[in-house]
Amino acid sequence: MKELEEKIRQFGTVLPGNVLKVDAFLNHQVDPVLMQHIGQEFAARFKDAKITKVWTVESSGIAPAVMTGLALGVPVIFARKHKSLTLNSGMYTADVYSYTKKTTNRISISKRYVDKTDRVLLIDDFLANGQAVEGMLQIADQAGVEVVGAGIVIEKCFQPGSAELAAKGVRVESLAKVSSLADGQVSFKQTEGED
Question: What are the UniProt keywords, alphabetically?
Fold first, then answer.
């Protein structure tokens, strides 16, 4: 998605440890017009998947997930990272390691909002090692729902997440594919049909 790549080039910052900081438009300050376009793009890519719900993990995945749900006309569920006083029983859970924060969080989704007939699209802001998506896959397995794919805003192609998900048969659609962050520069992987 060229618009997203341009935004990354303009506002993204490469930090030590192969971290791409995009807090100017995605995971701190949010560009709502870009998020709307991201949601529309995911909806177009998965238009024939008969999606009934969109799932994400709080908090950076919420904006693109909500816009995807809006474009598809389906509800959005975000897996909570912290225990809630109002959601204290009847939960599906999984442990997820955060590459950027170097911590493990237990994510949870209420059984109340999940139906065994659901066809779920997973949305995440980044795909590096695939831990957030893997956690959502574990919850989907516990719930007995079908995952139709994973929509990723920014994929780090030089890390194993996408290949590991593909090996499990998960359809991955990434809007920006970063091939390298070497020397503080963001390089993108060209996709078929691009010059």
Answer: Cytoplasm, Glycosyltransferase, Purine salvage, Transferase
For residue 86, what pLDDT band results from cuts at 50, 70 and 90? low
Separation between Cα atoms, residue 166 and residue 31, nearest integer Å: 30
> What pLDDT does 85 receive?
60
Pinpoint the alpha helices (H) of the chain: 2-11, 32-45, 62-72, 131-143, 161-167
Tell if the pTM clears 0.85, that is, is over it: yes
State how far the Cα of 135 lies from the Cα of 55, in Å rounded to an integer: 11
Tokens of 8: 């990354």
From the annotation, which residues make up the binding site?
Answer: 20, 27, 128-132, 156
Both ends of the chain: CA-CA distance in Å?
Answer: 14
Domain boundaries, the chain: 2-78+116-130+140-188
Of the candidates 187, 185, 135, 131, which has an alpha carbon nearest to the alpha carbon of residue 158? 187
The binding site for 5-phospho-alpha-D-ribose 1-diphosphate comprises 128-132
**2-78+116-130+140-188 — its CATH code?**
3.40.50.2020
pLDDT at 191: 65
pLDDT at 195: 43
Q: What is the CA radius of gyration of the chain?
A: 16
